[in-house]
Design goal:
alpha/beta, Rossmann fold, four-stranded antiparallel beta sheet, about 30% helix, six-stranded mixed beta sheet
Length: about 260
């Protein structure tokens, strides 16, 4: 489901956090949002999710203003994966993933065969089906992040909002999760993902949004917009972008020079 944001503005206690953000994310795109801490990435996501009240401008998902959608309707269109989550209760992994299907149930309904199948599919795709009966407090932080992603997948929404989804994952699982997210985009999902690692944008994203001081300063494919100048503007470091020709194609990477 496409996301369209027009002239989005938001302030906290008189401090302007978003200052007229404009972009569009299409169905089938994995969009990487880059920016330093405090650039406004999380606030942008909260506005798109309908969690931040009082913003100015327009946020539309699949043509509908998020301010007009019920929580249940919004949940059917967009799923959210936070950076991390400390469990309050020691639910099993299966129960935690099943929570992503509650938007398809009535007030007094319990998950049925369809919801259980969705949960099992999501756990299988993330490689955590063998942990279905374990408590979420008894697995590693990286494994809990995979549970959060599986829960969002089980929600069966057309749009995924991911706030640094690989922050707690080891190198292998980072590749596994991001490759999986790219595959979801290829299947028609709209994936909006924040990251601090330009390598993730080069390797997995179709588009880059660069956010600085509440404004979009670059919007385009990684090959066209993600260069040494942009990295310095975003992070204040000198870097060199290199290209390596491999059997799977040309791979771009970033080497810091400071």
């Amino acid at each position: 489901m496409p996301i369209e944001v027009k002239n989005l503005k938001f302030s906290y206690s008189g401090h302007d956090v978003l200052k007229g953000v404009d972009f569009r994310a299409e169905k089938g795109e994995l969009v990487s949002v880059l920016g330093c801490n405090g650039a406004g990435k999380s606030t942008l996501f909260r506005c798109i999710l309908g969690l931040q009240q009082g913003f100015r401008g327009d946020v539309n998902i699949d043509g509908s203003d998020v301010r007009t959608l019920s929580r249940k309707c919004l949940a059917s269109r967009v799923a959210y994966i936070p950076q991390s989550s400390e469990p309050t209760f020691n639910y099993t992994v299966m129960d935690a993933v099943l929570m992503g299907t509650t938007g398809t149930l009535g007030m007094t309904e319990s998950p049925g065969k369809k919801q259980i199948e969705s949960a099992r599919y999501a756990m299988h795709e993330l490689g955590i089906e063998d942990k279905a009966d374990r408590g979420v407090a008894q697995i590693s932080g990286g494994e809990r992040q995979l549970v959060l992603i599986a829960r969002a997948l089980a929600q069966n929404a057309g749009t995924l909002i991911m706030d640094e989804p690989t922050a707690n994952l080891d190198y292998g699982n980072q590749h596994h999760v991001l490759k999986f997210c790219r595959r979801l985009a290829e299947k028609g999902y709209t994936v909006l993902m924040s990251t601090h690692n330009p390598e993730h944008s080069f390797r997995y994203a179709n588009k880059v949004l660069a956010l600085k001081n509440g404004r979009i300063i670059a919007d385009g494919t990684p090959e066209k917009v993600l260069d040494e100048s942009l990295i310095e503007k975003l992070y204040g470091i000198h870097a060199r972008v290199t290209e390596t020709v491999t059997e799977i194609g040309t791979i771009r990477s970033c080497i810091t020079m400071d």
